[in-house]
Amino acid sequence: MERVEESMAEAQGAKEGTPLAASTSGAPTPAAPAPGGARRTLSAVAMLLVGLAVGAGVGVVAGGTLLAAWRSGALESESHERREQTGPVSPALTHTIDALVVNPAGSDGLRFLMATMVVEVDAPGTVDQLQRRDAEVREAILRTLGSKTVPELADVAHRDALKEELRATLLKVLDRGDVLRIHLPQFVIQ
User: Fold this and answer.
1) Are 84 and 148 in contact (CB under 8 A)?
2) Sign of the torsion formed by the C-alpha atoms of 155, 159, 165 and 166
3) Which long-range contacts does 127-131 make (Cβ < 8 Å, 24+ apart)?
């Protein structure tokens, strides 16, 4: 009777694809894993160690070169020379216009653009003017953005042209001063 149960268990294991071995109690148990599995694990560990060794070697060579240049002062004098050529770096004068939400043209109110715009200007007076005329500035920007369709707004290749159009829009609103650059750190179309 036990033999019949063992052969049924073996047949069931073969059907399921799981090798079974008989235990001392007569109940089938999974057979021990094949020795090839240990070789694969050992091979993976060996490849990992080789990769780490190569990475460490590259790091030592590259890091050693940079460390030697830093100790000799070559990196410091190079950055000092670059600073002298370009002059002192002054912080940019910017004005942030956030929470711009508009429905693009042709979207029937089903889509919207949410954006934040940073305006880089030439003088502190221009920043003051943008702050004082915030409502007028926002309206002009929203009018420009609202005239664009979703494909026009989504096309990253045309983003620079859009920034230039927004710059021209702001210049029409300002009495004096110049808008140097427009940045769009947040530009989400839903």
Assistant:
1) no
2) positive
3) 127/93, 127/94, 127/95, 129/174, 129/175, 129/176, 129/177, 130/95, 130/97, 130/170, 130/174, 131/95
* pLDDT one-digit tens code per residue, 102-127: 999 999 999 999 999 999 999 999 99
Q: Which residues contact 92 (CB under 8 A, 6 or more apart)?
A: 120
- Distance between CA atoms of residues 1 and 4, nearest Å: 5
Residue 3 to residue 9: CA distance in whole angstroms: 10
Give residues with Cβ within 8 angstroms of 158, minimum separation 6.
Answer: 152
Residue 145 tokens, joined:
């953005």
- Residue 98 exposure: Cα atoms within 13 Å on the Cβ side: 4
Per-residue confidence band for 43, with pLDDT thresholds at 50, 70 and 90: confident
Query: 172 or 81: which carries more pLDDT confidence?
Result: 172
Report the alpha-carbon distance of residue 167 to residue 179 in Å, rounded.
Answer: 6
Distance of CA 75 to the CA centre of its chain: 30
Q: Is 122 helix (H, G, I), strand (E, B) or coil?
A: coil
Q: How far is CA 21 from CA 5, 11, 14, 29, 186, in A?
A: 12, 11, 11, 5, 63
